[in-house]
C-alpha cells in the first residue's frame, strides 16, 4: 500500500455527512481543561460577595432601628421624623403611691401639668420644601413662606384633657356660659364624641404591644394584672423640643391664603 495513502472516518449515512455526535464528542475531547485554581478563586469571591451583602443588610437594619427611620417605624413622611428616638419606659399603675401629677382633684398643679404637654407649641410651621413631602396638603401661613401643621400627639392630648375637665364640670365650666375649654354646652357632646373616637383611632394606630403581666397577691389570694411594666416608647421630650423650635405663634386664620402646596 502506498505511503501516501491516508485513512478517514467512514460516513454515517449515504449522504456523506459525518456523525454529529462524533463531531461533538471530538470537540469535547479537544476542549481546554478548566484550571482548578480559577474555580477556587471564583468560588472565593462569590462567598465574599454574599457575606458582604448580608453584613450590609444587618448594618442597614441596625441603623434603621437606632434612628427610628425604618419603614417599620414611619412609612409616611413627617417633618419631625428626624428626632424619633425609642426609650424603655416603665408605666405607672396610676393608683395609690403610683398616682401621677396628671391625676387627682382639679388644682393649679394638675392643670399646669396638662397644659405643659401641648399648650403654646401644639401648632407648628414648616417650610414649603417640607410641606410638599406631606401625604396631605396643608395651608400657608399668611404673610410667610411657611405652612401650618400640628403633630397628632398634641391634638390627642388636647382631646384627653378636654375629657378630663368635662368629668368635673362643677370646677371647669364657665359660671356664666357653662362652656368648658371654650366649647359651648350644646356643642360639647359632639366634641367629646369626636375626641373619644380620635383617641381610639390613635391607640389602635399605635398598637402598643408591650406586655401586661400578672402577679400573685398573697393578701387578696389572687393574681392581679400589673401595668407598671416596661414599654418601648418614643422619646416624647425630643418631639416636644422639635415642636417648640417650630411653633407657629398666632396668625390670622381668616385671611385669604395662597393655594395649598
Task: Explain briefly what this protein structure is.
The chain is 39% helix and 11% strand. The protein is of the alpha+beta class.
Percentage beta strand: 5-15%
| Helix amount | 25-40%
The ordered H/E elements are: HHEHEHEHHHEEEH
Helix/strand/pairing class, anyone? alpha+beta
Discrete helix count: 8
Report the mean per-residue pLDDT as an integer.
Answer: 84
Strand order of the largest sheet: 1-6
Overall number of strands:
6
Shape descriptor: flat
**Which residues sit in consecutive blocks of at least 5 with pLDDT less than 50?**
1-24, 67-72
Terminal CA distance: 100 Å
Radius of gyration: 36 Å
The largest sheet is:
2 strands, antiparallel
Pfam families: UstYa
Region (Disordered): 1-30
Keywords: Membrane, Transmembrane, Transmembrane helix
InterPro entries: UstYa-like
Task: Looking at this protein, list some descriptive labels.
single chain, 261 residues, alpha+beta, two-stranded antiparallel sheet, two-stranded antiparallel ribbon, disordered N terminus
What's the SSE blueprint?
Blueprint: H1 20-30, H2 36-67, E1 86-90, H3 108-115, E2 124-127, H4 128-131, E3 146-149, H5 152-166, H6 169-172, H7 188-206, E4 213-217, E5 222-226, E6 230-234, H8 236-245
Antiparallel strand pairs: 1-6, 2-3, 4-5
Helix pairs in contact: 5-7
Structure in words:
This protein is α+β, with helices and mostly antiparallel strands and 261 residues long. It has 8 helices and 6 strands. It has helices at 20-30, 36-67, 108-115, 128-131, 152-166, 169-172, 188-206, 236-245, and strands spanning 86-90, 124-127, 146-149, 213-217, 222-226, 230-234. The strands form 3 sheets. A two-stranded antiparallel sheet has the order 1-6. It is flat, with a radius of gyration of 36 Å. The protein starts with 19 loop residues before the first helix and ends in a 16-residue tail after the last helix. 7% of the residues are buried. The model is unreliable at 1-24 and 67-72 (pLDDT under 50).
